[in-house]
Amino acid sequence: MKDTQNNTTKKYDTTPFDTKRTPPKQNLFFMPFIWGACWFLTRSGRLKIHKVNMKGLKPPYLVLGTHHAFMDFYVTPLALFPHRANYVSELEGFEAYGEWLYRQAGCLGTRKFINDINLVKNIQRVMKRKGILVLYPEARYANVGTSSELPPSTGKLVKLLGVPLVTINMKGNYLQSPIWNLKKRSGVKLSTTLTQVLSAEEVKNASVEEINALIKQHLSYDEYEYQVKNNIKITYKDRAKGLEMPLYQCKSCGEEFAMKGQGTRLSCSSCNAIWEMDELGRLIKDGESCHIPDWYEWERSQVINQIEEGTYKLNCKVRIEALPNAKNFIPCGEGILIHEREGFYLTFKDYGDTKEKTMFFSSKSLFSIHTEYDYRSKYGQCVTLSTDTNTYFIYPLEDGFNATKIQFATEYLHKSKTNR
C-alpha cells in the first residue's frame, strides 16, 4: 500500500506476521559469535554468574527472567552456556534487526499483553524437541529498577509445559542503562543468579498459586537497593536527566508533569523543590533521602485515588504508527486516545481504510500496557496497544500524556475488573 495520508509514494508491506511458523533452534554456527559478543559486551561490568540447584539439569526446561534493559539479552546466553535456547521476543525486535537474523538467533515473535495461542503452541514445540525456552514475563524494561507484577497466567504456562522451572535474576543491568536515559553508566557491577526453582515432578505436584508465589519470590529485585548495598557509585554527570518520565509528579506539592531532570538534579517548576541525585542513586532534599522506587509507588497510589474518586481520565490527541509484521512501521496519521474505567478507545484512520474508526481495548483484557520513554528517539513517550494481527504505537501530540501514569491506571483498572 502507499502512504496516502502523508502524501508520499512510499510503499509499505502489510503482510501479517506468521505466528504459526515453528521457531528454529539457535543456529549452531552462530553460537560462538553470540557467546563471544555477549562476553565482550558484559566484560566492563565484570559479570558474575551464580548457579543454584542447576547441577545435572538438562533440557528441556523453562527459564523466566527479570527484565531490566537490553543488557539482559547479553547476560542470559552466558548464564545458559553451553546450551542453546529459544527466546520470546516482541515483533519490534524482528523489525529492527531483520526477521531472518532474529529467527537464526532462536526468537519467537509475539505481541505484548495479548492472549497468543500460537505462541503457546510454539513454546510447547520447543519443549517437545528438548529445548530451552527463555521468557521475560514482565514484558518491558524496568521503569525504576524494580520488579513488575507478573501475569497470573505465568503459573498456568508452567503447569501446562510440565518441565523444570528455572529463573534468572539479574542485577546491575538497569543501573547501567535505565530506560529513561539509555546512556551507559560506567562502573556498574553485573551479577546474575540462575536457579532451578522446581523440578518437573515438583511442577506436577504444585498448584498454580504456589508456582506464581515462587516465581514472584525468585524474580523480585530492587536495583537501587542493590546499588547502595554494593556501594556502586555512578558519577555520570547527567544521571538525573530523564528521571521526570517515571517520576512525573512532585512529591512536595503534588503537581503532575512539572518535574524536570537535568544534570544531577530533579526539580519541580511548580513549587521550585529540588532533589539532588547522589552517586548511590538516592534523591536528597533538605538533608533527607528518598528511595526512587518509593516515590514511584507513591505515584501509583495517587493514580488509584484518582480512579476511585472518578477524576482519572485521559483524552489526548496522538500520533499513531502500526506494526503488522517484521517488515515495517506504517504511519496512520493523527487520532484520539481516550482512557477511562472501561478501557482504551483509539479513534483514527487505519492504513488501508477510507473512514475513521474507533478501536476498543477493554480493561479486563489488559493486564498491563507496554511503555516507552523515548522510543527509537522518534517522538518521545509512547504506549502500545495490540490486536492479534497488529501493534499500534501511540505518541502524544499534546500535554497530559505520561506513559507511567497510563501504566499505573491500566494495571489498577484490570484488577478492579477481574476481582469483582
Textual characterization of the structure:
This protein is α+β, with helices and mostly antiparallel strands and 420 residues long. The chain is 28% helix and 25% strand. It has twelve helices and 19 strands. The protein has helices at residues 31-42, 72-80, 91-97, 99-104, 117-128, 153-161, 173-176, 200-205, 208-218, 223-229, 292-309, 403-418; strands spanning 48-52, 61-65, 86-90, 107-110, 132-135, 165-171, 191-198, 259-262, 265-268, 274-277, 283-285, 288-290, 314-323, 330-340, 343-348, 357-362, 370-372, 382-386, 391-396. The chain has a seven-stranded mixed beta sheet with strand order 1-7-6-2-5-3-4, with helices on both faces. A seven-stranded antiparallel beta sheet has the order 16-15-14-13-19-18-17, with helices on one face. A five-stranded antiparallel beta sheet has the order 8-9-10-11-12. α1 (31-42) crosses α2 (72-80) and α6 (153-161) packs across α9. It is globular. The relative contact order is 0.13. The mean pLDDT is 94.
Percent strand: 15-25%
Through-space gap between termini: 45 Å
Overall radius of gyration: 22 Å
Give the helix proportion (percent range): 25-40%
Classification by helices and strands:
alpha+beta
Largest sheet: 7 strands, mixed
Number of helices: 12
Uncertain runs: none
Count every beta strand, where a strand is a DSSP E run of 2 or more residues.
Answer: 19
Mean model confidence by pLDDT: 94
In short:
This protein is an alpha+beta fold. It has helices spanning 31-42, 72-80, 91-97, 99-104, 117-128, 153-161, 173-176, 200-205, 208-218, 223-229, 292-309, 403-418; strands spanning 48-52, 61-65, 86-90, 107-110, 132-135, 165-171, 191-198, 259-262, 265-268, 274-277, 283-285, 288-290, 314-323, 330-340, 343-348, 357-362, 370-372, 382-386, 391-396. The chain has a seven-stranded mixed sheet with strand order 1-7-6-2-5-3-4, sandwiched between helices.
